[in-house]
Amino acid sequence: MPLTQTAPAPADIERAIRNIPDFPKAGIQFKDITPVLADARLFSGCIDLLTEHFKPGMVDAVVGIDARGFIFAAAAAIKLQAGFVPVRKKGKLPYQTHEEEYELEYGTDRVEIHEDAVRKGENVIVVDDLIATGGTAFAALKLLERAGGRVVGCCFVIDLPDLGGADKIRALGKEVTTLVTFGGH
Amino acid sequence: MPLTQTAPAPADIERAIRNIPDFPKAGIQFKDITPVLADARLFSGCIDLLTEHFKPGMVDAVVGIDARGFIFAAAAAIKLQAGFVPVRKKGKLPYQTHEEEYELEYGTDRVEIHEDAVRKGENVIVVDDLIATGGTAFAALKLLERAGGRVVGCCFVIDLPDLGGADKIRALGKEVTTLVTFGGH
């Protein structure tokens, strides 16, 4: 990859996202980010855009949400010279955890964080591939509060603004960065 | 993180790995890598050691295995200026896939890769947190063969040599890098 390549813009990332109708079920337009990941320039550029409000040293840890969030969050942690902290679905983390419930379309699910995942007062950012209703992101924020972390930003590649999650997180006073928007507004 | 910090050695990574007895079930000594991830210096150094045989430009894509493998593989992709390709548990990838079965202690499971995940002849490396019997790694190698990728290396943070997976992959003529060994030899 020659260093003279220009950095991608959000529009380049948007063009690479593939729409998959009716996945995982009828009526859902699934946003497939794997073509962004497979392209070294787009993947790296996407992480740069996602974290452009932060400089190395400003963030102690990047929190990634199981499982696609791990990809973007781990990449961001390397770029920001930060640690990486997983928020996982219930039952996956082996040590003592805090646990939060969040709502699904039908029913609820649970996510966990290790009790010792962050040190008190550490600056963290939450990274995920997509924000819709914000259920898992909200649960992650609550988990980080309980673990003692200070959330200084939330970064999502894709925003579905019709579902209101990003606005709800902004209403908490949190900085939210999104790169690509589908539907709405 | 001051630049004068020395790079970690495999022994530093080994010391940070936490043993969790009887997880996820009685008799299993689970190797918890989250303390490595949470430490910016260890996480970054771990990726450098894992990929030290490769230079940016030598690898087109880093293949990560669902879900902990995503963390190390995405970080390696950024360091090597490569793309990232996920191998996922069945039903998670939205586009057309190749599928491979692998054996569990009791029964079998399936992993998938998108049919267009790599271009024919691309150089790829497979990255995961741990190799035990090598079941998922083998399935990933078969998937990459079907997708047309050329696997130039397999990198695992932890090797459990008693279970033979790393040796079986070496017997295929593949370069295998592991950083930390538990049990055996």
Describe the structure.
- 2 copies of one chain form a homodimer.
- With 185 residues, chain A is of the alpha/beta class.
- Helices cover 30% and strands 32% of the residues of chain A.
- A 7-stranded mixed β-sheet of chain A has the order 5-6-4-3-7-8-9, with helices on both faces.
- In chain A, α3 (40-50) crosses α4.
- The radius of gyration of chain A is 16 Å and the shape is globular.
- Chains A and B meet through α2, α3, α4 and β4 of A and α2, α3, α4 and β4 of B.
Most extensive interface, residues per chain?
A-B, 46 and 46 residues
User: Oligomeric status of the shown chains?
Assistant: homodimer
Average predicted local confidence, pLDDT of chain A: 95
Q: What is the strand content of chain A?
A: 25-35%
Kindly report how far apart the N and C termini of chain A lie. Answer: 37 Å
Assign an overall shape of chain A.
globular
Rg of chain A over CA atoms, rounded to whole Å, is 16 Å
Strand order of the largest sheet of chain A: 5-6-4-3-7-8-9
Largest sheet of chain A: 7 strands, mixed
